[in-house]
Every structure is written in C-alpha cells, then in structure tokens.
Amino acid sequence: MDQALQAQIQLPIPSLEDSLRLGQSLHLEFEGLPALSGGYHLWGICPNQSIMVSAPQLELSDQLLAIPVKARLFIEQLDSACAFRTTVTDLCARPSPYLHIEMPNNMVTGEVRRNNRANIRLPCELRYFDSRTLDPTHITQNIMTQKILHAEMIDASICGCRIHTTANDLKVGDTIIMAFEIRIFGILQTIDLSAIIRSRKETKEGYSLGAQFLEMKDCHRIALSSYLLKHC
Q: 97: exposed, middle or buried (C-beta count within 10 Å: 0-12, 13-18, 19+)?
C-alpha cells in the first residue's frame, strides 16, 4: 500500500468526510483474513465516528470486531490515491450486511502519476462494435456486431497504453472496452475500462495502437496505479 503513495500528506478528519460520497468504492484489507480483502462500497457516514461500508458478501461474526483494516480509495476532488488504517467497530445485518469502520484521524495521499509509462506485457481482451454496410436491394443498412479481440499491452500509464495486435479492424477514433488481469498485493484483479484509439501504426508483427483511457472504476484506478508504480 505504501508503494502506491507518494509525498505523504496528513489530512484532518473533515477533509476525508467532505470528500467521501455514497456508493464510492473502497479496497479493504483485513489483517489476518486475506480472503475477505477486496472491493467494498460506502454505505453511509456517522460524522466524526465511523464509515459505514456495505458487505453483502461477508458472513458477519464477532471475529471481525476490532480487527485492523487498511483502506484504499481514489478521491476525485483531490485527484489522489488515498489510504488510511482503521478498525471494525460494529456489525449490522439489516437491512443488508454492513460494517462500521472507525473514522481515522488522518490519512495519507499521493497524487496519481499520469505520465510515467511502465514497460509491461499483459494479455488483454478488447471488445468493440464493427459496422458492416449491406446494400442487397439498394437500401443501405448498417449492422452493428460486437467483436472480441485478444491482444497485448506493451506499455501503460494511468492515462492510457499501447496495444499490440495482429487484427486490422480497429481505426483511430474507435471506442473499445478493455479487460486485463493484474496481480497487486498478492491479489489477482481484473481491470475493466473503456478507451479510445488515438493512434495506429503498422508494424512487422501487426499493428501498434495508442489508446487513451476514458472511464474506469475508482477501485480499478487505485489498483492499476499501484501496479504501474511497481513497474516504472
């Protein structure tokens, strides 16, 4: 977690409370219970007391009470990856399972580095729509079909990546959905995001595509940022 953060800055409680929003994604790591670590969502806030986190996948038990927790999230207002340490203070089963984790006194933040590119090689899956024009009776029809392409990311930053592919379908301006797996903190996580093709160059092996990331979940942005920092 510490490797994913730069230039640590101490922030008071109000900065955290004011920045959180309902439904926001958090990555929680429960000390001694790695199987429970993963993505959770903000359920609510008890001012100056606790953060309520939805946990429909958990089987609530007293074993969770007072257990140390590391929390990571991306705060859009600060444009930063953030982290703090806390503990579980209460368990609630209704209306659906959720946890109270103690409101931290401070947190550490680090600006997400956007321009540093990491030399990596990751298999990725690309989904996109291909338009075929049919004119069987002098009436033009555009039929959109979804295609799936297997390619390889050969370098990446938090803003985009370069993709190597042998397929000739994708052009500059096309929008794609990308999916790939990374291993961070010993946990294998699938990253899903949308991107747009900004450049295209023919190579000896096929085609080199420059892609700019468009939309990505906060929890995926945090995990990808941590992964890239390890490979820069």
A: middle
